[in-house]
């Protein structure tokens, strides 16, 4: 099927003629060109690699406590370590290769957030520190941070009001 078979003629109110895709033909065209996704394989790999990341976090927690770090400090060190590792792996190009096979398995844990912050910065580093890295650092993660901060403020305010009333 060629592109012309997917498009249909449409005329605007001002008499201009332009082509619009015929939805049914376009959907069939996309299905014909898109290979089927191996969903079961994707689910299993996302589950296994995401679980491996989480298990690594648990092992780090046990390791920190084994070396005498307090439980509270260990709880802070684990996410810091995972974020640092994900940022370093993104920087050397390994994280993207893992994410290619793991899919959502790398996005759900905290490592996905580290990748979302680091990847745009690395992509635009050749444009300089200010206009490249600085301007693009939070391009993907910025809205997450903004909405997360707003949501936590609202939840905290509601919690505070409930505590006052109760």
Q: Secondary-structure blueprint of this entry?
A:
Elements: H1 3-6, E1 7-11, E2 17-21, H2 23-33, H3 39-66, H4 71-91, H5 94-102, H6 104-107, H7 110-123, H8 129-136, H9 142-165
How would you characterize this protein structure?
- This protein is mainly alpha-helical.
- Among the domains are: 3-33, no CATH class; 48-123, no CATH class.
- 74% of the residues lie in helices and 6% in strands.
- It is built from 9 helices and 2 strands.
- The protein has helices at 3-6, 23-33, 39-66, 71-91, 94-102, 104-107, 110-123, 129-136, 142-165; strands at residues 7-11, 17-21.
- It has a two-stranded antiparallel ribbon.
- The longest helix has 28 residues, at 39-66.
- It is extended, with a radius of gyration of 24 Å.
- The termini are far apart.
Question: Briefly, what is this?
Answer:
The protein has nine helices and two strands; from the N terminus they run αββαααααααα. The chain has 166 residues and is mainly alpha-helical.
Mean pLDDT over the residues: 82
Total DSSP E strands = 2
Shape: extended
Note the main sheet.
2 strands, antiparallel
Strand content: 5-15%
How does the helix and strand content classify structurally? Answer: mainly alpha
Low-pLDDT stretches are none
Q: How many individual helices? A: 9
- Cα-based radius of gyration, to the nearest Å: 24 Å
């Amino acid at each position: 099927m060629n592109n012309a078979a997917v498009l249909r003629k449409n005329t605007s109110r001002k008499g201009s003629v332009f082509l619009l895709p015929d939805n049914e033909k376009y959907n069939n065209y996309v299905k014909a060109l898109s290979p089927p996704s191996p969903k079961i394989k994707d689910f299993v790999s996302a589950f296994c690699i995401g679980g491996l990341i989480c298990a690594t976090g648990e092992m780090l927690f046990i390791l920190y406590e084994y070396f005498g770090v307090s439980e509270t400090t260990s709880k802070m060190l684990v996410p810091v370590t995972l974020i640092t590792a994900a940022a370093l792996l993104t920087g050397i190009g390994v994280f993207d290769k893992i994410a290619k096979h793991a899919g959502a398995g790398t996005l759900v844990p905290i490592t996905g957030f580290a990748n979302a912050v680091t990847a745009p910065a690395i992509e635009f580093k050749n444009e300089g520190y200010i206009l490249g890295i600085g301007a693009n650092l939070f391009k993907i993660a910025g809205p997450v941070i903004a909405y997360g901060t707003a949501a936590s403020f609202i939840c905290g305010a509601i919690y505070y009001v409930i505590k006052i009333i109760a």
